[in-house]
Amino acid sequence: MKRALLPCCLITCATHAQIGVDRPVVLTATDPAERTVQGSAPALEADGLITLDGARSGRYHWGQASGTGMAIQLALTPPAEAYVNGMELRFVPTAPGMGPVSVNVDGLGARRIYRSDGLPVSAGLLVPGTVATLVYADTAFFTVARAPATCPDGFMPVNGQYCIQRNDTVNVSFFTATRWCNDRGARLCSYGEYIHACTMHQAELEGLFNDWEWIDDTSDHTHMADIAGRWVCHSISNLAMIESNNNYARVRCCLTLK
What we know:
Number of strands: 18
Strand order of the largest sheet: 1-2-5-6-9-8-3
Shape: elongated
CATH architecture of the largest domain: Roll
Number of helices: 4
CATH topology of the largest domain: Mannose-Binding Protein A, Chain A
Radius of gyration: 28 Å
Distance between the termini: 80 Å
């Protein structure tokens, strides 16, 4: 009698198992309510079945961030197997990042992150406590967010169009000054932007009139670049665009608000 009950128990007892199917599964029930697959757990491997709940929640796009603001490490569940065009990731940075920022997803290798317009990451795009979204294309990731609508740390609003750095910074050549701003997702100020900020917000800007500051305007000669703000806001002169200690000026970047 006991032997007879054993097959029944095997038939009726609930079981849990992993099933591998190497070909399409076609559901043929006439009732739509019966053409379903239920009880699937979240995928743990790249080729696992994705549930509606998993797709709706976006958990497969979410990464756990670590590392630094300039070299981000991301861990996905399940882990990514390769970088592919259109790959979308979301995460919360652990530290602020700007300029030449990179991300390494599941040990696949570091890839640069750029703004959606192809420029280096602006200050304020990757900050702790704020969700960042990236999309992969060709050889790099691009931020989905636009340039910050508010000025990042170290900058102040001049009007609704742009921000300017509060203090003058490094003392370098014109070429280094341009790259220094670009690496921070910013740029050298035009003369109009500089004199407007200097005149209207003089009390809020630090380091004014301590030295010449580079602006993004060239002189009548193609080998010269303009400098401004030595003694008063409208002070203007020029220096040769060469790498020489005698042709250095301070850097104060501007950043366009979009």
